[in-house]
Amino acid sequence: MITDTEGLRGYLSGQRWFGYKGEDAGDIELVDEVILSDGPPAFVLTIVSIEVGGRTLHYQLPLLVEADGSPRDATADPDRLKLLGELMAHGDSIKGVNGVFHFGGPGLDPLAPPPGSDSVRIMGAEQSNTSIVLDQVILKFFRRLEIGINPDLELNRRLTSEGFENVPAQVGEITYETTLEGDDAEIDLGIAQQFLTDGIDAWEYVLERLNALYDEVDPADAAEDQRFLVDERAGDLLNAIGELGDVIASMHVSLSRGDTDHEFAPEPMTPDDVDELADAIAASSERSGIVRDLRDRILERTHRLRELEDIGAKTRVHGDLHLGQVLTTPRGWMILDFEGEPLRSLEERRAKRSPLKDVAGMLRSFNYASVAALFARAEPASDEWARLEPWARCWEAIARERFLAGYLTRAHEGRFLPHDRDSFGALLDALELEKALYELAYEEGHRPDWVRIPLYGIKRTLEATG
Length: 466
Known about the structure:
- By secondary structure, this protein is of the alpha+beta class.
- About 40% of the residues lie in helices and about 20% in strands.
- It has 13 helices and 17 strands.
- α4 packs across α10 and α5 (about 225-235) crosses α11 (about 385-410).
- The chain is globular, with a radius of gyration of 24 Å.
C-alpha cells in the first residue's frame, strides 16, 4: 500500500463529489489500489471504503501520490491522465492488491492514436462524477461506487449496440473485478463515449428561446390570439420538442427489445408495482405540510390508481430524465447520463419501471423551464409576472401536447403502454404527481421561493384527473 489512508480524510472533505461533508466519518480503508505509472508522483487508481452514518460507502480516487503517501487528485495534472486513453486503446488489465482493473476500448479506432494523444482537459465541476475529455472522447469516472452494474454504462452499451443514434456512442470502459466474502464481484469504474463538441444543453437552449418569446409579448396582443402567437413565435422550439418526444419513444423501444435477455425483456406491470407507486405518492404527501389541504384529493387519486387493470409493461428506463440530461445538436437530440436518480440505490436505479416515468420527468421539466424563465426577469406577484405568466402557461401547454404527440406516434412500436386512453392518462398523472411531490420536498429545503412550481404541477394534475 502506497496511499496514506489517513491523509485521504482531509482530501475527501474538500471534494465537491463527496456528499457527506460535516457528517461523522469512521475509518477510511483501502479496498484496492493499482499504480498506473511510477512518476514521481505515482499515478494511482484507488478504491476506498468509509463509514458514514452507519453505512459503508465506496469511492474511486484517481490520485497522484507522493513518496510519503500524501495524495492529491490526479485531475490537478491533466497531462498525466492521457495514460487512461492508452490503457483503454490497448485493452489492458492490471492487477491491483486485491483484484484486477480492466481497461477496454471496443469502440475506439485501432488505427488511430489513443484518446488523449493531442489534448486532455477536465470538464467543469460536477456534483457526483468527474469527466475528462481525451481528444474526441469523454471519460466519466464514477466517484461513488456500488457493487454491480452501473446503469449509465449498461444502458449506453445497450443502446450503442442497438444502433440507437441519439446517445453519444459508448467506446470504452473501466471496470474492476475482485472477490468479496468468497463471491466474485464486479464494479464499474468509468464509461468512455464520443465527445459532442457541438452540443448545447437543452435546459439553457429552452430558457433562451423562452426569453425570446417573452420579449415579444406586446400589450396589443389579443388574449384570444395567444395560442396562435405562441405557436408562431416559438414554432421552431415547439417543433423540436415534438421531435424530442419521438426520440424518447425510440429510446424506450430500443430498451424494450430484450426478449432473450432477462435484464431488458419487458415485463407486465403488476398490482404490486401499482401499489408501490400509490404508497410512494401517499407517503410523500404525508411528509409535506404544504399539501395538507390537498391530501384527501391526492389519496383519492392513489385509490383510483390501484383500481387500474390495464397498466402496460415495465422496461428499463432512463430514470432521471429532464431537459438537463439532453443536448441539442445539428444531428438532433442526444440523451445523456443514464445513472438514474442519485439518491436511489443501484438496485432501484436498475429496476424496470413504466416508461411513462421518463415522460413524466420531461413534462415536469417543461413546467420548470417556463417558470424559471419568469424568475429570471420578474418578481412573483409583480405586474410583470402577471403580464407574462399566461404566456408561460400557454407555452407549457403546447409543449406538453407536442411532446406527447411525438412520443405516442413512435411508442406503440414497443407495446409497453396501456391500451386504454383513460388508463394511460391516469398512470401518467400519477407519475407526474409522484415527481412533483419529490420536487416539492426538495424546494422546501433548498429554494422556498420555487415551491410554487411543483405545487402548481400538483394542483393541475389533481384538477386534470377530476
